């Protein structure tokens, strides 16, 4: 790992953490409570979950100034948020996805509703009760299939207690963030209403050296959510949620690292005003009925997402043309499930899930030369249904066995019309797959504070379409990829639950890995999505939280994920290339976070942490890479019973790092830079 001042600070912090006394002296003792979670779709203890899971509650999110999913992932071992204008993605245990792919191998659920598109996954986190992050396939628990894991966001629901909160932040780069929410009873004990609104605005940190403007990566976004909850007695409940989000962003972020148009960090040289706007709306109706032995649940949802994207395709001051892209996605889904309730020697879950999804896209290269102009218009329809379930049986007082199975049928039909100077050509393809995804797990209580577990599960990521770079029938569609996941771990707590440590190791076999590669003989910049032969990922995860003193908390999370391509013969720059032995792209070799929080009895508090990611490659040839980086973050505040004022600082030492690298058609390297030093003040109020 490259030695930097950030890295030195991180190592010192970790040394102090590991050498902090774990006895509380004379200060009041605090303990780490065993959380009640719903990751398994029924209430259970966090310590009893036989798998790798990290849970952060709403207070943790507020304490660490976490506003969205990308900020959350800094605190989760082996979970990395790939943030790029070409498409976001959540990378877990080295399982990445194709750059520009619309779908992510990591599932995201908010109040039981799936957010399937990768562009949807950096959701704002407001009114959060807790976030549960499960690593490994979760197809036997969740309605929509997920290959590498699930982020399960549980919202605060309105009830008889009146709750209200508001916050306002102001920071550098003319940044503003605001949030307000209120919830409470409309009719006592039966009808409850919750409302929330959120907005943010920033000029961004990118300057265009051609136009002189310093707001070419600005952002304006707003979102709102309304929740109506009806409780009819002790057994029946109906929850309806409507939400909407609008984002308007400048996307002039790609700069040249070399070549005649090279520029420095956070400086671009483009002749166009690059913009994107996104609109997202959703509605869900959730009904549940508590029977004598089981909880029955129905979830009906609809989510609509549109994106318009315009940018200078050559990223130079020369007026050559633009790329104009449009995405329209409409998803409808229905889930029925039943889960056992009560304390028995066995617990079970069974569910049915179905969805239909329309995805229409267009991408046009508007070149000054008609010979270079291209246009692709794609219409696709995706459908699927699944039956899934798990059964856990307590063999002895200490030993539990779990078995699960998912059966899924998925189909898609797609048609693309590709228009070039040679005229239009249309190609279509139908995809279908029937999959059986089993899992088994065992857990054994070695002592009252020590539990060991082992799991084995099969993962699957559906095939799809190359919406943005196909130019033939052969380069339009691609097949599913498959994984076999092996995992073992221990969950521990010591010193009267003032230290909790979870450790896991894993090995993942990956077959038919979905990749983006050059089309042989197609020339530079002509890509296809296909399936490489084989790869694997292996690693270790450690998650530790300790309360060594009454008001002091220390925490660390460390994830190591070593990926390797076993067999893949492809083409690089028109030349045959053997990728075997290389690392998978978009997969950092490790992620980590270490920090400390101190909360004084008079209301003052301070939180500091260092988070980092190891070396990663942005291409399968491993010619484009970013070295390891470490970001120092700080928050100082004063809390009153109903108010809180705080100062925050992210990337305190202004560490330089890249979130994306790619080569253009001339072989020059373009870079998207990570965020610089940002700071600001936040004023919060709560009832």
UniProtKB/TrEMBL annotation:
Record bears the keyword Ion transport: yes
InterPro entries recorded: Beta-barrel_TonB, Beta-barrel_TonB_sf, Plug_dom, TonB-dep_rcpt-like
Keywords: Cell outer membrane, Ion transport, Iron, Iron transport, Membrane, Receptor, Signal, TonB box, Transmembrane, Transmembrane beta strand, Transport
TonB-dependent receptor-like beta-barrel domain segment(s): 250-652
Topology in the lipid bilayer: Multi-pass membrane protein
Region (Disordered): 262-281
Signal peptide, first to last residue: 1-24
Name under which the protein is recorded: TonB-dependent receptor
Natural source organism: Desulfobotulus pelophilus
